[in-house]
Design goal:
The protein is an alpha+beta fold. Helices cover about 50% and strands about 10% of the residues. It is built from 20 helices and 8 strands. A hairpin with a 2-residue loop joins β7 and β8. The strands form 3 sheets. The protein has a 4-stranded antiparallel beta sheet with strand order 4-5-3-6. A two-stranded antiparallel sheet has the order 1-2. The chain has a two-stranded antiparallel sheet with strand order 7-8.
Amino acid sequence: MPVRPDLARALAAGFLAGEWTQPALVASGAGVLGRRPRWLTLLARETVAVLPRPPYDAPRELAAVLLDLAAGLDLGAAAAQDLRRAHPVRQPVVGTRMERNPWHLPVLHDLRDLAELLDLDESGELDWFADPRRLARTTSQVPLQNYRTSHRVAASGAIRVLEAPKPRLRAVQRRLLDRVVGLVPPHPAARGFRPGGSVASYAAPHAGRAVVVRLDLEAFFASVTVGRVFGTFRTAGYPEPVAHRLAGLTTCVLPLSAWHAVPRPRDDGLLAAHWRLGRRLAAPHLPQGAPTSPALANLAAHRLDIRLSALARAWGGRYTRYADDLAFSGGSSWGTGTSRLLDAVEGVVRDEGFRLNPRKTGVMPRAGRQRLGGLVVNDRPRVARDEVDRLRAILHNCGRWGPASQNRDDHPAYAAHLRGRIAWVAQHDPARGRRLLAAYDAVDWSDL
């Protein structure tokens, strides 16, 4: 490597500290080196040619550009040897600043601005919560961890690992969600975890279609790496140091001791996916349980949504996504070519760093029940009739035999549980919801 990385970083800081012209860059570089070698003039000329404007928000990126430019300089043997041996005698310190702000977010030029936004101490608390060295991975002491880890068995038999931030970090993340993350718009195809989004808006575009295809992304949150999150904040315009801390505040690494406490799934067919989950959780990722994770996952999947929307249009169909659930629909011609569509979707998903869960792929012609997000979409999004009938029967039996007779699973808040199920029906079918609510109001709940 012609230039030492520490020299590239020092030259980048020196260049950014002065005017962005070739003579000024040469003068700044001479201050870093303590001399003015011939190759410095060539490097300054190439830098201005490649970067007409100074990247005040990206000193690390500038250092990487300098490394590449120095490697391509046409130098004689003596000058090349001097370049290889060069080292900085002065390390300038230069501040960063936000150069663009496409979504009119809070202006955060540096870590001081970020700490002020979050009401944190810049030198201690900000680093503690962001954990830039990922020390939480190696500690088994719960007080030194910012997340509480738990697990539960999903309906499929897979083990789902939940990482919930402790109260102070949760408060920081909620402030970030309200003031920064939630203000960045996701792709229109993303119908969950956004203002106005819902299961109904996810399912409605596919109602009355000849063929509906449902797919699922494996370990969606854990698949979103810290690099993707960093890139999301950089796209929003935040300088590298700020984006780095923001990524640290919203991602985590599962402690090794916590992973050892997670049981293996009983179904041997789920073991491969379980070990893949372990590898994802061992690296910095979006935690399932943090308030910022759903919105950040939407933003991290923006390019995936762009490509899958274009793919659906090319096939004359439609595409929407609700968290990790993907939905496509098309006309009768899809009945003979769906396998090719699935292959194309899998290629895009894999190329974007995600993976499909083959166990949850479903191709649903209109002759059968087409179900998305718990709603039947054969004609319009609605709760399945048998589910409504089952709820009606439960309420009838509650009125006749008492609610305790129907609470076979010993639900701790059975009345509220049934009320929530009625609200779900009413949201998508108001008339049925009103009838169920009338039956609910007629029940004497005092014996629970």
